[in-house]
Amino acid sequence: MAKGVAYYRGIRGSAALSTARLDSAAVPAEALAPGEMRRVPFAGELLGAVRVRSAYAAIPLEALDRAGEALEAEEQAAYLQLLRLSYGEGRNWARAGKKELMGRLRLSERRLLRVLDALVRKGFARPLHRDNRGTLWRVALPCEAFGEPVGDDVLLGRAAPAPVDAAPPDGHARRPGAAPTLGPRASPVAPRADSLAPGASLPAPSAASPAAAAARGPVKAAFPAARAGQRERDLARALCLARGLDGDDPFAAALREVRELMDEGQSGARIAAAIAAVARRRAGQAERRS
User: Fold this and answer.
1) Closest CA to 100 of 125, 54, 69, 137
2) Residue-wise pLDDT tens digits, 154-190
3) What is the crossing angle of helices 230-243 and 268-289, to 10°?
4) With 0-12 CB in 10 A as exposed, 13-18 as middle and 19+ as buried, what is 179?
5) How far is CA 50 from CA 34, 39, 47, in A?
6) What is the pLDDT of residues 66-83, one digit of tens each?
7) What backbone torsions phi and psi does residue 58 show, to the nearest 5 degrees?
8) Would you say the C-alpha torsion 258, 245, 204, 127 has a positive or negative sign?
């Protein structure tokens, strides 16, 4: 380094700040109660509460708080973009091409491949399928990458049997004669289903699923409204509205899904939160089309 060239560069604007004594009342915004919808002035700014009401991602906080334990800076950035494209859309997978990720991360192709390889090696992502639209990624939460259970804070879709050569979840079947797309860990009996973050669309039960088989037991497949509680009926109506559907058949299907979720131990509040996010996502898609 040439003599006289400064090596150290501080943060712009921080040099003017002096370290103050400990005083819990020095910054009024820090005294606001959680959830208190106010902003108070400090140093020429208004600091306080913010609530994002639309176009936001339901991503567990652990995805941001714990990823730094295992990921380098560029790996965290790539992981965040994959989370945006997967859990931000209410699913645990994302279809993304190299050019899209290079543009989002401002990385060269060589550096991007190195970063993605690190995510795969550390268990945060896994490539499942590729075509000219890009690679289909299974994106894992940190708890999954660390070998821990997901827990009750994430609402998962019901597992349903599917053949080994099933089409990828975005609906495009593989070419005839091509190798199976689900990789060596796929099972012809019960592969892992696409998980749903809180607010994801609720998948229709497969005719071969255990839940559907149980529903066809001593009762009818479409649970009659008279046999369902008022809470289940209200949730089923809300799900129909969120999907923009009307009629007896959509209501019966929605009621069956709600009943099966409750039988699996999901609370009404969590199902209602998922339905509300379905409605928000549908409204956002309608806005983008208009």
Assistant:
1) 137
2) 888 877 776 655 666 666 554 544 444 333 333 333 3
3) 10
4) exposed
5) 11, 9, 9
6) 998 899 999 999 999 999
7) -85, 85
8) negative
